[in-house]
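Input C-alpha cells:
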C-alpha cells in the first residue's frame, strides 16, 4: 500500500536520506531499525510531508503522494504518532481524544469515533475523566494510538512507541498494534527495542546512513548475524 522509490531528502540544504526504497503491504507491521542518526524518524517525516524531498517518489495505494502536506496525508488515511509523550498532561483522557479529532476531515463523526475507539480501549473509557498525566506510560501511549485512530487511518506511522516503557507495558503497546494490524490497519514503526519489535512484525527494514540496507521478512532479519551487529550499533559490513 505504501511504496518509497529512491527517496532523497533532508532539512533545508542538508541531505539525510540518500536513497530510501521499500514497500509496505496492507495490513502488515513493518519495523524500521538502524543505528542512531540513520534517518529512521526522517523517513517518517518524508512520508508525512514534513521534509524537503529532493528526489524520488512516495506512492500510497499506487497514487503519487510525494511532497503532499500533512493535512493531505491525513485525508488520505495516514496518521503519525511522533516520538515521546504527546498527550496534553493536564487535560482529561476524553478531552485529549477530542483534540485528536480536530484535524479530522469528517467533523460530524468525531463523537461517534471517540465512542468506537473507547470500545476498542476499555481502559480509556474507564479513565475518561482522569487527567492524562495520571495514566501510566503505557496507557498514555495507548491514548496516543487511540487518538490517532480517531482519524480512521489505514496507515499509522509510529515512532518508538516503547520508549521509556517497562517490558510489560511494551508488550501491551505491541499487542495493541498487532490487534490493529489484524483489523486491517497497516503499521510502519521505528523501534530501538529491535528484537522485541521484529518478533511481533511481519517485515523489517534496516536503514543506515540514510539508505535502505536490508528489507526482508522480520524473522529472516532476526536470524541474520549482520543485523545482530547493527543492534549493537556497529556498521553493517558487506551489504550493498
Ligand atoms: N530538524 C532537523 N534539522 C536538521 N537536522 C536534523 C533535524 N532532525 C534530524 N536531523 C538530523 O538528521 C539525521 C537523522 O536523524 P533521525 O532523527 O532521522 O535519526 P534516527 O535514525 O531516527 O535516530 P535515533 O535512533 O537517534 O532517533 C541526524 O543526523 C539528525 O541530526
Amino acid at each position: 500500500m505504501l511504496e518509497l522509490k529512491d527517496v532523497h531528502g533532508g532539512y533545508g540544504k542538508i541531505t539525510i536520506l540518500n536513497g530510501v526504497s521499500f514497500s509496505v503491504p496492507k495490513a502488515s507491521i513493518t519495523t524500521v531499525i538502524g543505528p542512531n542518526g540513520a534517518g529512521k524518524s526522517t523517513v517518517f517525516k518524508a512520508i508525512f510531508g514534513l521534509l524537503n524531498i529532493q528526489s524520488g517518489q512516495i506512492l500510497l495505494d499506487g497514487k503519487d503522494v510525494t511532497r503532499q502536506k500533512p493535512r493531505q496525508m491525513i485525508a488520505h488515511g495516514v496518521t503519525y504518532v511522533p516520538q515521546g509523550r504527546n498527550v496534553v498532561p493536564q487535560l482529561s483522557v476524553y478531552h485529549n481524544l477530542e483534540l485528536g479529532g480536530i484535524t479530522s476531515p469528517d467533523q460530524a463523526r468525531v463523537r461517534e469515533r471517540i465512542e468506537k475507539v473507547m470500545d476498542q480501549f476499555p481502559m480509556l473509557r474507564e479513565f475518561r475523566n482522569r487527567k492524562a498525566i495520571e495514566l501510566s506510560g503505557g496507557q498514555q501511549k495507548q491514548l496516543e494510538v487511540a487518538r490517532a485512530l480517531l482519524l480512521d487511518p489505514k496507515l499509522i506511522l509510529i515512532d518508538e512507541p516503547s520508549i521509556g516503557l517497562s517490558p510489560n507495558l511494551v508488550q501491551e503497546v505491541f499487542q495493541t498494534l498487532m490487534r490493529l494490524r489484524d483489523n486491517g490497519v497497516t503499521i510502519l514503526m521505528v523501534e530501538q527495542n529491535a528484537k522485541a519489535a521484529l518478533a511481533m512484525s511481519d517485515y523489517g527494514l534496516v536503514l543506515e546512513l540514510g539508505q535502505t540496507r536490508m528489507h526482508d521478512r522480520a524473522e529472516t532479519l532476526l536470524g541474520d548475524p549482520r543485523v545482530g551487529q547493527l543492534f549493537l550499533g556497529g556498521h553493517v559490513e558487506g551489504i550493498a
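The chain has a mean pLDDT of 89. The radius of gyration is 18 Å.
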